[in-house]
Amino acid sequence: MGTRGRRRAGSPDARRAILDAARAAFARDGYNASLRGIARAAGVDPALVHHYFPERSRLFMEAVYGGTDGPAMDPAVLDEVRRLPAARQGAALVRVFVTQWDRMGHDRFSALLRAALTNESMVARVRELVVGALVTPLVAKVAPDRVRLRSQLVAGHLVGLGMTRWVARLDAVAAASPEELAIAVGPVIQHYLTGDLGEPSDPSAAEADEPRVGERSGE
Amino acid sequence: MGTRGRRRAGSPDARRAILDAARAAFARDGYNASLRGIARAAGVDPALVHHYFPERSRLFMEAVYGGTDGPAMDPAVLDEVRRLPAARQGAALVRVFVTQWDRMGHDRFSALLRAALTNESMVARVRELVVGALVTPLVAKVAPDRVRLRSQLVAGHLVGLGMTRWVARLDAVAAASPEELAIAVGPVIQHYLTGDLGEPSDPSAAEADEPRVGERSGE
Fold first, then answer.
1. Which residue of chain B is at minimal alpha-carbon distance from A156?
2. Would you state the CATH architecture of domain A75-205?
3. Using CB atoms, which residue from A152, A171, A174 is nearest to B173?
4. Which of A70, A214, B121, B126 is deepest in the core (most CB within 10 A)?
5. Ordered DSSP codes for B14-55
């Protein structure tokens, strides 16, 4: 969305132009993409980028995850999943995840994952966002036990599926329809949501009832 | 493994020092880590790095994946998995994957994944290595159908599990023992190996019998 003239603060589309330019730059150059370059591509003064987005992380999250056309995971869609009978939530979650990120585009998924891998504070943010805000509330409603382990296995599997489809673009997974993936992968997510995961081998390490997402394991 | 004096070509430990320095640099700085910096940390002339490893990709793969203490996935261990009854291979594969990468260290896993995300030729190499060389031969022996889809779902799930444990380090997955993960995740891998994945929705897009790993989906 490059333009010739410079947009000014308050120009109705300046903020949107910055987000579009940022999305392209982050997807291409990773989390440390040049803010000056983003301003140039958006046709605005660099100070305006800083005015709208005082922190790089906020610009990144809105451009790549939130975007200009709504959040990647529309909370209303997740509410629909949540209202389904527990036994149907696995396939529904896969269908929603694949459909929404197919629509968002593989560049965004790659950019989010790259940022999460190259920047420690982004790891924490993505962890909080994906596991804490999206997956855990859903899992907590149906899980018979071990909410944290279940949430983390679900999140890890969806991210792995996304890598396969949108980053590595392995042909059979990339060519499958959302419905085919819901059928093939749904039972797996269902297993993580409500199936028997076995007993913790060390009862003293058993997790608290309250999910505590976002903490680091001791190391 | 920084040293004072310069090691010379033919010095028995020069090659190993280069690999150790490269592993640290790739884990810290990503795929485009400075080769000059690696030579400095290894105490060798930069020309010697080039002598042993004419291509960056070869240095990377040996340092990060192959390493100085053997390949990440010892082929002999995979042979053992292959000799098990089909119904026990899911859990065994998880156990082997988790145990071996725990031993290799999370830095290597992160470095491999970061490289795969930041460099297109590395995406292809990692795809070939993980899916083509390791997963597909194993899956092909037991899969009733759809070898490519099964291989790719297995590979994607293992990578996703690895991200959860070694990169994002989500606490419940990071704290689980390899045996706990074999119990919780094994049935999932088993489902992808031998379970019913449903029918392809578009029969004309059904995959050929022969696995063709490493191809890109058309886009």
1. B160
2. Orthogonal Bundle (1.10)
3. A152
4. B126
5. HHHHHHHHHHHHHHHH-TT--HHHHHHHHTB-HHHHHHH-SS
Q: State whether B156 and A173 contact (CB < 8 Å).
A: yes
Burial code (b: 16+ CB inside 10 Å, e: under 16) for A54-73 equals eebeebbbbbbbebeeebbb
Q: Is 1.10.10.10 the CATH number for A14-54?
A: no
Question: CB–CB of B131 and A170 under 8 A?
Answer: yes
CA distance A118 to A31: 7
B14-55, what's its fold?
Arc Repressor Mutant, subunit A (1.10.10)
Q: What is the pLDDT of residues A33-84, one digit of tens each?
A: 899 999 999 999 999 999 999 989 889 888 887 744 555 566 688 888 999 9
**From B151, which residue of chain A is nearest by alpha-carbon distance?**
A172
Q: For residues B218 and B59, which has the higher predicted lDDT (pLDDT)?
A: B59
Instruction: Give the relative orientation of helices A89-104 and A106-118 as an angle to the nearest 10 degrees.
Output: 100
Tokens of B112: 């491999």
pLDDT band of B24, cuts 50, 70, 90: confident
Token pair for residue B7? 């090691």
Confidence of residue B122 (pLDDT cuts 50, 70, 90): confident
Per the listing, tokens 């590595």 go with A168
ipTM over 0.90: no
